[in-house]
Here is the input.
Amino acid sequence: MHYKKVLGALTIAGALAAGSTAFAQTASTTTTGSTTTVTPTAPNTGAGGNTAANLALLGASAAVAAGGAVYLARKKAAV
Amino acid sequence: MRTKVALALTALSLGVFSVTLVHAVWYAPDIQVSDASVVATSTPAQLAADSKEYPSRLTIPKLQIDANVQKVGIAKSGAMAVPSNFTDVAWYRYGALPGQSGTAVFDGHVDNGLSLAGVFKHLDSIQAGDDIYVQTASGTKLHYVVSGVVLYPYQNVPMADITAKTGASRLALITCDGAWVQGQRTYDHRLVVYANLVT
Here is the structure.
């Protein structure tokens, strides 16, 4: 049961980090004779808005890793 | 059985942690479309000759920027691709070469996935008259002077004009600005710095 909760938290954090929609526009294409020129759209040069999702994912994965390590260490000590 | 699950979860979590940290802070490459599907107008000999004039470093003394230059094309999203990290700048390789006719276009990140400063974090403090230098692969150092700084809504950046290969030799430096648009996962403005070639 405990593991299901952890997996659920990781899944939610992953979905947050991945986001549902990414910035995408269509590049325009111009053809003159045999020359094709593609005009790109503006570059996406920032990632700061993903900070909360990234921190959530980092925190959740660190917590799970630490919990797992502690559990494994205790299990080993008990044997 | 529980031990195996714990071991697997721990390993998975460490993997997620590592990938997230690297992607947020150090390495975030764009998936670019292949050259063949974009343009096929240059011969191999011409490309080899041009490669000596490819930019290798971009320097802005006022902002203490001295950055390596990556060569990029068009991302899968249709946008000009960006550097694969947050400390380099990228030159649009289908546009003009620095020092030649037209606008040589560079972009760089304003911040990374943890909101730490990217190479162009302080680009908004540059002003008309400030110096920008571009060093080419052959060692030539080109001197540009900032002529204007313009803020565009991100859906209305005049990329056709900015990537033009005709007209006076100039630079355009692009980075993000404004507020984050969660639905699009991008900032709502683009800051473009224009600079004219002096020598």
